[in-house]
Amino acid sequence: MMKRFIGMSVITIGVGLAMLLGCGEKADQATQDMKTGVKEATEAAKQMGSAAKENVESGAVATKESVEAAAVAAKEKMDAYLGDMKGQLDNLDQQYETLSGKAGVLGDAAKEKFKDQLAAFSEKKEAAAAKMEEMKGLSGDAWESAKQELDQMMTDLTQSYDSIKKGFIGG
């Protein structure tokens, strides 16, 4: 009976070893398949990340170009405005010089009043020129605020000139 027990034990151990070896191979294969799957998933994620990164970079470049184009357009608009205002100021300056030349025909009291008004006009003109110079370094809301101030200054300056002209030269 002992021989039979030993024989059965050897068979049981052999079958167990065979199963273990067979399972071991399957376990090794499953482990290898998992490693391959992980590598493939990692590579796919890298490729997706790379594509996403390229999309983000492309979007950033397009945004930067749009912002730069808008800044150039805004700068051109500002320069055109300042050029127009300088032209108006130069025109008023020429008219001022013409008006000053005509002041010699006035009487003493009128001449004195005329000189005082021309001095006030000159101060306004200088303030407008200074505002224009200040505006060269501004942008955004500060530019818009300064633009409104300059528009008002130019309106006041034109009205002041017209008032002086009507009062002393007769229009």
Please explain how this structure is put together:
The N and C termini lie far apart (144 Å). The longest helix has 101 residues, at 2-102. The model is unreliable at 5-10 and 13-21 (pLDDT under 50). Helix 1 (2-102) runs antiparallel to helix 2 (108-135) and helix 1 runs parallel beside helix 3 (140-168). The chain is mostly helical. The chain contains 3 helices and no strands. The chain has helices at 2-102, 108-135, 140-168.
Structural class: mainly alpha
Determine Rg (CA atoms, Å): 45 Å
Our count of helices gives 3
Poorly predicted regions are: 5-10, 13-21
SSE diagram, text form:
Blueprint: H1 2-102, H2 108-135, H3 140-168
Helix pairs in contact: 1-2, 1-3, 2-3
Question: What is shown here, in short?
Answer:
The chain has 171 residues and is mainly alpha-helical. It has helices spanning 2-102, 108-135, 140-168.
From the structure above, extract its key features.
171 residues
